[in-house]
Design brief:
It is a single chain. The model has no long low-confidence stretch (mean pLDDT about 80). The chain has helices at about 5-15, 25-40, 50-55, 60-75, 80-85, 95-105. By secondary structure, the chain is mainly α. It is about 60% helix and about 0% strand. It contains 6 helices and no strands.
């Protein structure tokens, strides 16, 4: 591995997603990045992201980096295929991306 951020950006590119290296240090750009992904799924998440941004916006860098890190780590233990196999019954396009962004958005939500 050359550089973790480079690996994250390369992993995202494999899913047709733009790199996060140029947005992760900017809260506004990070929010836009997350919203762009959510729009692909009609914003179908358990708790609408925009409705919780007031309490949550300080976490977007963490969410975005967790998302990218998960993309890299998903190649280990076949996580991507396991998630896609489990969720294919819901007919969600790119169910791995949908599931992973949802997990990253709300994995710390109980702290609020």
């Amino acid at each position: 591995m050359t550089n973790l951020m480079e690996e994250i950006d390369n992993g995202l590119a494999e899913f047709g997603l733009p790199p996060i290296s140029n947005v992760v240090d900017n809260k506004k750009k990070s929010i836009q990045y997350i919203n762009t992904i959510l729009k692909q799924y009609g914003n179908k998440v358990t708790i609408p992201f925009n409705s919780v941004l007031d309490q949550y916006d300080f976490r977007v860098k963490h969410v975005l980096f967790s998302f990218g890190l998960g993309i890299v780590l998903s190649s280990f233990h076949n996580l991507k295929n396991k998630i896609e196999d489990e969720y294919k019954k819901y007919e969600i396009q790119q169910s791995f991306i949908y599931t992973w962004i949802t997990l990253c958005l709300y994995h710390d939500f109980g702290y609020f």
